[in-house]
Design brief:
Length: 126
C-alpha cells in the first residue's frame, strides 16, 4: 500500500500538469477595411477606406489593434461567434466587434469622438 500511495503521489500531479498545460494557442490576425462611418445616425462612405489590423492569440485576454500606423494594446473578449477588441482610456473607449462567420466588423466609440464605423475583415490563423 505504501508503494501504491507513493506512485499516486508522483503520477497524479504529472497527469494534472499535462492536461492543464496542453492548451492549443493559435494566432488570429484580422485584416480589416473600414468602409463606412456613422455620426448622429447619418452614415457615409469612407474614401479612402481605412485599413485596420486586429491581432489576438487564442486563450489570451489581450491583443492589439493597428490603425493608421498606431498600435494599441486592447482587451479581447470572445462572444457567440464574435470577438470584441476593447480599448479604454481617459478620453473614452473604442470597441471593435468582429463576426467570426461573416467577417463583418463594427466599431463603436464613446467620449469626445463618438461615432460608429463599419467594414469587413479577412482572418488568417498563423
Amino acid at each position: 500500500m505504501k508503494h501504491l500511495a507513493a506512485l499516486a503521489a508522483v503520477f497524479i500531479p504529472v497527469a494534472a500538469q499535462s492536461v492543464t498545460l496542453d492548451v492549443p494557442k493559435g494566432r488570429f490576425v484580422y485584416e480589416c477595411q473600414l468602409t463606412e462611418i456613422c455620426k448622429a445616425g447619418k452614415c457615409s462612405s469612407l474614401d479612402p477606406v481605412i485599413p485596420v489590423t486586429l491581432d489576438r492569440v487564442e486563450g489570451n485576454s489581450k491583443g492589439t489593434v493597428t490603425k493608421q500606423g498606431k498600435v494599441v494594446e486592447v482587451l479581447v473578449f470572445p462572444g457567440l461567434g464574435t470577438h470584441e477588441f476593447l480599448s479604454i482610456s481617459a478620453g473614452g473607449s473604442v470597441g471593435y466587434t468582429v463576426n467570426d462567420e461573416t467577417g463583418k466588423v463594427s466599431v463603436h466609440t464613446s467620449g469626445g469622438q463618438m461615432h460608429d464605423e463599419r467594414g469587413s475583415c479577412a482572418v488568417t490563423n498563423k
